[in-house]
Amino acid sequence: MNGLAKTTNTERVFIAKHRFARIAPRKARLVIDLIRGRRCDEAVDQLRFNRRRSARMIQEVLQSAMTNADEQEADMRRLYVKEARVDGGPYYRRWRPKDRGRAHPIAKRTSHIVVAVAER
Known about the structure:
Layout: E1 3-8, E2 11-21, H1 25-35, H2 40-48, H3 53-71, E3 79-97, E4 103-119
Antiparallel strand pairs: 1-2, 2-4, 3-4
Helix pairs in contact: 1-3, 2-3
């Protein structure tokens, strides 16, 4: 995860990323849609009580973005999730043995999780 800070029109944006996360983007997008646009403390609570495996990964990325904001002395009470997206990463090709000596391909998908927080 790497932290970046950008300034756009007097609004500071703090970014954290988790690249090559071993979860399919389709599954991670179900959870990331829950936090987009919310206040950060609400988003953390939403992720903490979500039972999906991707919620834990997204929570770590969100905490990292909040830590990046805290290091830059942002007001933690005014933070909200400005951008939250899951992009597809490369995938591993595996083969599943099937009947009569055949093989069927299996795609082990990866994701790039990006969370940006900003002050309201």
